[in-house]
Design goal:
mainly beta; Neuraminidase; Methylamine Dehydrogenase, Chain H; 3 domains; four-stranded antiparallel β-sheet; 46 strands; WD40 repeat domain-containing protein; Vgb; WD40/YVTN_repeat-like_dom_sf
Length: 533
């Protein structure tokens, strides 16, 4: 393996890549929404610039008939790029498709047809390059991708939980006798045996399971993959109602439970990326990206996805995407969310488990996300971030603290606790009922009677211009020993709330949870650590 270097200065992510007939590589980037070319013969990169002004994502890319096709987000566009001249020309999407989708998530080119899968609608559109028009729309295609053509000039993809073929000439869509939920790309292989003559289609699911299907005989099978799994980075931590420490995985999702008494780790599969979690009324509530899905898990019963845990709601239709903040609020659960891609305006949602009812209060602070919550004496206290979903710039300049009355359903107070701070990442109450808050690097004390900030303390210097977004990094808790503990800027710290003297306990410490014995947990990448207080 050889490190070829950074493709374009300032770009942090390459979403997809494709190649041309000469072996040159093209890729789409974030956060500037650019396309690059890598020439392996000359070992050089070429920057074609941003595909669509203001669009930060090139989420999909393919090559065909001498042109590069790039799909963008968080507004859906398709751009045809001439790799020699650098000329860009947009292929307009049907108006309703452009209006109702955020991403051109997949692009595939076969013969003279361009396949474009859109998100979140899951529509697969077919564009005929000869006719220069959209000729087909296929619903409920979860992806990823459309296969290259196989026997009888047909391509294959997953639709509605089943494998389908699509004739490139007649555009006839046909279901195949093979059930499958999703795929991560396709290839063609040759297998032994009379049931698999000629080329067979092969793919892998999001869960890592291989499958193959022969279009001549209609036979399909699952192929055991003797591949050792890799650990995923830790995305979230929390104490469960059983006293165990629960760990949520990044991107691929999954959940694990650590039993401190038994020193035992148990893994649970099937759930997505958990952004935040909270023990409430004997269950572990989890906020899952994307779509801000809210689940609950009863640790006293066996894990069975979609039965236990059970999904209570999705806030996708309310424009929400990432549920980072949760707190118990009397007999309700309060949830704070970051909005969807390309949108501003988070929400405070209150959920009543007894009835299953919930209420969404969007833009409780205008154009800001709700990223921290706490509750005391009948009132919900919330902290915000000026950033919304990825792909849109903030319009506000300072984070706010707000107070919400869940009984009368009214915001009773809103203010800026520290001028110039753009996010309030954590909130906790001390024994006297004072509210303590944490920004990226500053601590503040808020008198809930006078509703004034009475103390501030800088823990770590922060330049807000260094952040592309800030939704969650700091954590804070008031401990029974009378001190404040938390993590911020990758450090586990301790603060004396009387003198404001403080110290760093551990370097390279991220996220935060506390067990019933008062010991703390933090993460480093995919590893969980315990700090014996």
């Amino acid at each position: 393996m050889e490190d070829l270097g950074q493709v374009i200065p300032g770009e942090s992510f390459i979403w997809r890549i494709t190649t041309d007939e000469g072996g040159r590589v093209y890729g789409g980037t974030y956060p500037s929404g650019k396309v690059f070319q890598y020439n392996p013969e000359t070992n050089t990169f070429r920057d074609y610039g941003q595909m669509v002004p203001g669009q930060q994502y090139v989420r999909s890319i393919t090559f065909g008939k001498g042109k590069v096709y790039a799909g963008t987000g968080t507004a859906s566009h398709i751009v045809k790029l001439d790799p020699e001249s650098g000329e860009k020309k947009e292929i307009p999407l049907p108006p309703d498709s452009a209006a109702n989708n955020q991403f051109v998530y997949d692009l595939d080119f076969e013969k003279n047809l361009l396949f474009a899968r859109l998100a979140p609608s899951k529509d697969l559109l077919v564009y005929d390059l000869k006719q220069k028009k959209w000729v087909d729309r296929i619903a409920d295609v979860p992806g990823l991708d459309v296969s290259s053509h196989g026997p009888e000039n047909k391509v294959y993809f997953v639709k509605s939980g089943q494998l389908y073929s699509y004739d490139l000439k007649t555009r006839k869509l046909e279901p195949q006798n093979f059930k499958i939920g999703n795929a991560r790309g396709f290839g063609w292989i040759h297998l032994d045996g009379p049931e698999y003559p000629g080329p067979s289609l092969i793919s892998i699911t999001f869960g890592g399971d291989f499958w193959t299907y022969n279009p001549i005989t209609g036979k399909g099978k699952w192929i055991p993959a003797d591949i050792e799994g890799q650990p995923v980075e830790i995305q979230s931590l929390g104490q469960g109602p059983d006293g165990n420490i629960y760990v949520g995985g990044y991107l691929n999702g999954g959940l694990a439970s650590y039993n401190p008494a038994a020193n035992k780790l148990t893994e649970y599969k099937g759930i997505g990326q958990i952004e935040g979690m909270k023990a409430f009324q004997g269950k572990l509530y989890m906020g899952v990206y994307s779509g801000a899905d809210i689940y609950s898990y009863d640790p006293g019963k066996s894990w069975n996805m979609n039965i236990n845990p059970v999904k209570h709601m999705s806030l996708k239709s309310n424009g929400q995407n990432r549920p980072f903040a949760m707190t118990s609020a009397g007999d309700q659960l309060a949830i704070g969310t970051v909005p969807d891609y390309g949108q501003l305006g988070g929400a405070l949602t209150t959920f009543a488990p007894q009835t299953g009812g919930y209420e969404v209060h969007r833009n409780i602070v205008q154009n800001q996300s709700v990223i921290s919550l706490n509750y005391r004496n009948g009132l919900i206290y919330g902290g915000t971030s000026v950033w919304g979903g990825l792909g849109v710039q903030p319009t506000e300049t300072e984070a706010k603290l707000f107070i919400w009355d869940p009984v009368h359903k009214v915001k009773v107070w809103e203010g800026v606790p520290i001028s110039g701070e753009k996010a309030i990442s954590a909130l906790t109450f001390d024994a006297d009922g004072n509210l303590w808050g944490l920004t990226a690097g500053k601590l503040f004390k808020f008198d809930t009677q006078s509703r004034q900030v009475v103390l501030t303390k800088e823990l770590f210097p922060v330049n807000w211009n260094d952040f592309s977004h800030y939704w969650r990094e700091g954590f804070l808790t008031y401990d029974e020993d009378g001190h404040l503990y938390g993590t911020a800027r990758g450090k586990l710290f301790k603060v004396d709330p009387q003198t404001l003297e403080w110290e760093v306990l551990v370097e390279n410490a991220y996220l935060f949870a506390e067990d019933r014995n008062g010991d703390f947990y933090f993460s480093r990448g995919s590893e969980l650590f315990k700090y014996d207080k």
